[in-house]
Design a protein that fits this description.
The chain folds into 3 domains: 9-349, 2'-5'-oligoadenylate synthetase 1, domain 2 (Poly(a)-polymerase, middle domain); 368-444, Ubiquitin-like (UB roll) (Roll); 448-517, Phosphatidylinositol 3-kinase Catalytic Subunit, Chain A, domain 1 (Ubiquitin-like (UB roll), Roll), CATH 3.10.20.90. The chain is 33% helix and 19% strand. The chain has helices spanning 9-16, 21-40, 55-59, 81-105, 191-198, 211-219, 223-243, 252-267, 275-287, 307-317, 339-349, 391-402, 469-480; strands spanning 48-54, 67-75, 110-118, 127-134, 140-148, 293-294, 322-323, 368-375, 380-386, 409-413, 421-422, 438-444, 448-453, 458-463, 487-491, 494-495, 512-517. The strands form 4 sheets. Strands 1-2-5-4-3 form a 5-stranded mixed beta sheet. The protein has a 5-stranded mixed beta sheet with strand order 9-8-12-10-11, covered by helices on one side. It is elongated and about 105 Å long.
Amino acid sequence: LERVSQRELDAWIARNLEPSTAFSRQVKETVKKICDFLKEQCFDSIRVHKTVKGGSTGKGTALKNNSDADIVVFLSCFSSYQDQKERRAEILNHIEKMLEQCRATLTFSVMIINLRRKGRFGTSARSLSLTLQSASCSESVDVDVLPAYDALGRAPHSADVELGAAPAGAALAALSPHTGQVIQDAMPDPNVYVKLLAACGDLSEFSPCFTELQKLFVKRCPTKLKNLLRLVKYWYKEVLKPRNPSANLPPKYALELLTIYAWEQGTGASEDFSMAEGFRTVLELLCQHQKILIYWEKYYSLQHPDVGGFVKNLLLQSSRPVILDPADPTGILGQRADWVAVAKEATRCRCLPCVAFVHPWNVQPARPVTVEIKRLTGHRLTMSISLDTTILELKRRISAQWDIPVFQQCLGQQEPGRAPLTLQDSATLAASGFLGSTTLMLLQTEDMEVLVKDNCRTTPYTVRPTDTVQELKLKIYKKQRVHVDQQQLMFDSKQLEDQYTLAHYGIQSKSVIYLLLRLRGGTDH
């Protein structure tokens, strides 16, 4: 890679990184033998619902002569997330014992070169890691075996989904009637995730339960993007890791998701793009790891009352980089990893011949969201901006579109039954909690005249849309000497409450507001 030019990059990937048909077939056969063993020989009283092939082999992003596979085995003894948590160690012990017996008796047609427990940094073992080698081939395959609860396979049908739990028009993940595997790349029943949050496990603890969705998320990618994923993984395994042998590096899956995000944002998900520009963009994003905040709403929605609230809090409270697993709302990847080491190597590799003279795509490290700006006049403005955009920067963009000076703009969000939220210039959209599509009200703080009418007269008052009802009452007191607690203001047949702004009630220039006097005895006059 150190000597590959920009012009040669695509051909070099095809020649050196894409696996041959023969190797892919050998890996498939090797993995199948393990799956058959788990289904047919490993358990007596426990039924295997299904086995699912994940990792680079399952996703279609394996490297030439260097493949890894996750085999997730969904077992009948796990009837809940809690069962998986409590019985996982027992099941791992049993699988390890059975594999050792097979190796000792040579009844297994695949040689087990290495067998060890494996867990994420600082956690107990969650899988068995095997290095397998076929008797007919010298190449080896690394396989992780993970026992898991069949959360997606045991989910209720769409008729059981609560009204409003899934977005309108959302399809629910469908299962194969023959294998029980998820075959439709769609949002599952939200109750799957509600139960996940109720299980109170560690973050990402139950990630294997969602292997099928993780696999579908990557497998759907076009061929050229998969080659970019191969290039990034090659860089991770052959450049980054050897130069940082003792570092706690983030999982490869985190870099896969970052690469997919860069492609989606930088090309509009086009199948025709420059490989060099794509690789350069990923390196640039890794150099800005302190700003990365990315997530998807493909399999769960931020609008869901339970799941959405959890995800928003997680995104806002977690230290960056934040790369959220699109299939697991508890799965922030690489939170305790050494991203500084990654950024240092990415900085060095920006000078590689294949990327040194190309421009990266215009991709913000924090995911963009759609913001709609509404005015009281009915005019609307829609823009896509980064979550790290400040309210002041947003006002400047509005000023460029509508020629409204920044100092006259007041942006806020009105929620039913709550006082309007006025946004502070220094806050970002993310810090303000706007992690999805958002509608904001724009109020111009120009003076306007409203008319306050009582039984005797009509009195004009100079106010601003952002003034509260309480502030208007104080002006009435100063001019008419009617004490604030004796005032009851009505507009459009509604009683105005002190804490709300005039704009909240739709009061505009020349609006007539009725003043009723509340007598000491409590009656209105």
